[in-house]
Amino acid sequence: MKEKIKKYIEPLKPYYDIILFVVALLVANYFWKFTVLGDEGGTMVTWFGLDITRPFDIMSVHITSIVYWLISLTNDHVYLYAPDTIHFATGTGTRIVWGCTGLKQSFIWIIIMLVARGSWLKKLWFIPLGLVCAYLFNVLRITLIATAIEHHPDWFEFLHEYLFKHLFYFMLFCLWLWWTHRIGHPQRGPQARGGENNP
User: Fold this and answer.
1) Which is nearest to 113 in space by CA: 124, 102, 103, 104?
2) Which pLDDT score, from 0 to 100, does residue 12 have?
3) Residue 100 gets which letter from DSSP?
4) Residues 6+ apart with CB under 8 A from 16
5) Strand partners, 38
6) pLDDT, average across residues 102-124
7) What is the rounded average pLDDT of the residues 95-115?
8) C-alpha to C-alpha distance for 105 and 35, rounded to whole angstroms
9) Structural contact between residues 148 and 155, judged by C-beta atoms closer than 8 angstroms
10) What is the pLDDT of residue 61?
């Protein structure tokens, strides 16, 4: 029985890391999707029935203030309509609700890195690095979307639901690739393969 199992597992060894990545991504995504619940208005967010709205509210207001400041550097016709809402003189605007805080992607990143192979000591700095990248990307994402819909409100669905959503996960994938091929597995160098370790 063990030999049969080994026979099927052996060919998968070169793909072990990517399998871990995909499984971690899917499990984390669906765990969040079915346990962290909130309405579109963002008035309440719950986790297994517990009210966890506060951190999402804080993050929404924080991101809104940063995005407003960035846009106002080059646009005099942007207004902070509410702590979590930006409006333009054109009449368009956007509200930063709980689902736009980037906390979900940060959670997924942590899960991916917890199951990824590699040095735990290096993970102590690489996981926070990924969280910073996720935060910066999210701020950039919302800034670009808000700027675009000032004059093209019909672009919102494509930019929000398709383009930047997939780019966000692509960014996490690139970080994971960096970890897997450059940082997390130093044993994959030439010396580990029996060759010379040339500079």
Assistant:
1) 124
2) 62
3) G
4) 117
5) 45
6) 96
7) 95
8) 15
9) yes
10) 95
Tell me, rounded to whole angstroms, the distance of Cα 157 from its chain centroid: 19
Looking up tokens 């005099």 gives 76
Beta carbons of 108 and 36 less than 8 angstroms apart: no
Residue ranges of alpha helices (H) inside the chain are 2-9, 16-35, 53-72, 103-115, 120-149, 156-157, 164-178
Give the confidence band of 62 by pLDDT, cuts at 50, 70, 90. very high
Q: Which of 48, 50, 24, 44 is nearest to 35 (CA)?
A: 48
Cα–Cα distance for residue pair 42/82, rounded to 1 Å: 14
Which residues, in sequence order, are CB contacts of 95 under 8 Å at separation 6+? Answer: 42, 82, 84, 85, 86
Strand (E) or helix (H) holding 94? strand 93-95
